[in-house]
Amino acid sequence: MTKEIYLTGDRPTGKLHIGHYIGSLKNRVEMQNSGNYDSFVMIADTQAFTDNARDPEKIRNSLTEVALDYLAVGLDPKKTTIFVQSQIKGLFELTEYYMNLVSVARLQRNPTVKAEIQQKGFGESVPVGFFTYPVSQAADITIFRAQKVPAGDDQEPMIEQARELVRSFNSAYHTDTLVEPEGVFPPNGLGRIPGIDGNAKMSKSLGNAIYLSDDEDAVAKKVKQMYTDPKHIRVEDPGHVEGNVVFTYLDIFDPDKKHVADLKDRYMHGGLGDMKLKKHLIDVLENELKPIRERWQMFAQDIPAVLQMLKNGSDHANEVAEATMTKVRRAIGVNYFDGLK
Ligand code: TRP
Fold it and tell me: Which of 8, 28, 113, 166 to mutate to test the pocket of ligand 1 (most atoms within 8 A of CB)?
């Protein structure tokens, strides 16, 4: 049985939070453990440079943090190739060839990049590397011949771009070397969980995230700050469940659905206080996060071993990428010196 290949990755621009865990990391670990996939997980440092070129220190620090997050949630270097984008030289080469197969007009239509350019206030000063990162991301995916790309909904346009580039490449160079990838997206409601303040997006810049490496006190403090129902003042008051972040999180994290339904009922009828409810959420989160945090701290004691793991993964990823690049060079016809000594 030949296994399918899956590839995905994260930009190292900060620690990963429970939104990443629910929307993506948990699913990767399941795919890894299913035994049905050849798994590749990439720390996308090259892509992080597209909007952090002047802050290499941040990328360098985040690289080890993200690697620790991966190990802590259960990605296992024996089963998953965990590697670093910048170390795969073939990616730069393939990206350069792809650049000629896509137009500026096509890139300008990418809704995710468009939104990011606006959020970051780039305007006309958008770095060329940032504007073209979907091209480099197409190289990330296709150099490993990935059939499946588990990612957030916002990555859909990148995967579509990669499919188009594969078709253009294969048709321009009369080959079937490259494989069209498919996205695997999170089920409804798990793709994006709100921040503790109720903002639809959990993010570092909004200061509303719970991190996988947060200690117990930090988690408890964040839950206590959580947005509930501003009109639910006294315990006896009837409260709202909809838009109440504590319930949104309980729906996601509490395995006892019947108990959650019961709590909702009591909350809506009055008689359940926010403090008691939050105490329960803290317990539920601790159940999930404690083992992750303990593993995080254990792996963090040996950073050289973490770096060695990344190097081994990158070495293996390079071999796989080079096998594709040999075919790519041959297909394009730049293999001028084949057969020479
Ligand atoms: N764009 C992704 C993000 O911002 C990171 C990424 C880079 C990626 N290359 C990839 C994701 C290839 C999936 C496949 O999180």
Answer: 8
